[in-house]
Amino acid sequence: MERPSDRRTALPAAPVAGIPRWRALLAGGIRRLVMGGTGLLAALAALLHDAVKERPKAELLQIRRGNAIIAGNAAESPAPVWHGPCAAIMAKTQWGVDDPEVLDAIRYHTTGRAGMTKMDKILYLADMISAERDYPEVGELRALAGENLDAAVLQAVRYNIRWMEECGKTIDPLSREALEDLERSAQAQKNTEV
């Protein structure tokens, strides 16, 4: 039986806006974090995660409405995170990507979600600590990423929610669910170490 990682996945014919960022993500985070046979799939997710980020809001709305089943609860999300679900939709419907783990990592790279996979965590964190990021806590997250992926993602989600609250911005419900799930997992891990 053919595994998803054995297939070649069609890439967009047109240049993807996120390519320079993809290179930074790959160099700054994913290469260091990916283990085993998921490296190429993680690189594909990194390449496509911001592919529609610069498209107009009206176009993102059209992509979501035209693919309501795939979009899921994206309508409940604040506009700044629409590009994640829309990039996943385009990857599936236009660019031939059919690996669910890649599509989910793309979809949730800005919000996180409960039950994040390793690839979800890698892309979420790599996006937050990529080379062009210069917010005060980025050095801490980069260092933590090299030590403990789960702890780094938990701290990154905490920071993200805190920043959103401080700015008075709408927080995607998926981000709160991600935080609760990551905190439960961290507590469970801590309890097993005692």
Structure commentary:
- The chain has 194 residues and is an all-alpha fold.
- It has 10 helices and no strands.
- It is globular and about 50 Å long.
- The N and C termini lie far apart (43 Å).
In terms of topology, how is this protein built?
Elements: H1 19-33, H2 39-48, H3 57-66, H4 68-71, H5 83-93, H6 100-107, H7 118-129, H8 138-147, H9 149-167, H10 173-193
Helix pairs in contact: 1-2, 1-7, 2-6, 5-6, 6-7, 7-9, 8-9, 9-10
Write a concise keyword list for the protein shown above:
62% helix; 194 residues; mainly alpha
Tell me, what's the shape? globular
Helix content: 55-70%
Class derived from helix and strand content: mainly alpha
Distance between the termini: 43 Å
Strand content: under 5%
Order of helices and strands: HHHHHHHHHH
Work out the number of β strands. Answer: 0
Rg estimate, integer Å: 16 Å
Q: How many strands, what sense, and barrel or not for the largest sheet?
A: none
* Low-confidence region ranges: 1-19, 26-36
